[in-house]
Amino acid sequence: MTPARQGAATARTDEARSTVNVEPDGAGGAVVVLAGEIDQDRAAEVQDILMSALGAHPGGVVLDLAAVTFCDCSCLNVLLHARLRAGADPGRHFKVRNMSARVARLLALTDTLAYFPNGDGPRAYPAEVAVSSPDGPPDTPSG
Hints:
Elements: E1 9-13, E2 18-24, E3 29-38, H1 43-56, E4 60-71, H2 73-87, E5 93-99, H3 101-109, E6 131-133, E7 136-139
Parallel strand pairs: 3-4, 4-5
Antiparallel strand pairs: 1-2, 2-3, 6-7
Helix pairs in contact: 1-2
């Protein structure tokens, strides 16, 4: 049985370099909390857990990325894939509740920040996220 189907579950990978916690939200959805390093070595496992959570919870998934300390393009691919999977099912949502500065910076640099609504809007993003433009000073993501 996959962690997302067990109710509340936590998966720890590789000496706790990363953790994934899936917990039902009580309204047909789930809250998934990712923590630590999400890189190419962990991407497949995280993707499996997110796909399982989306399949098991018709209300959708709220993703908390506040404790992610490292993410790379493989993490971005997992997030985009989960977003597409959720969008294929009417009524199923995939939202981001919080994100660390590292995640927000990756999304800003890849121009994908707008695909992952975070809280109430731009103010919910970490203040230290700034993306340098080749033509001028850093720009702050506008959400």
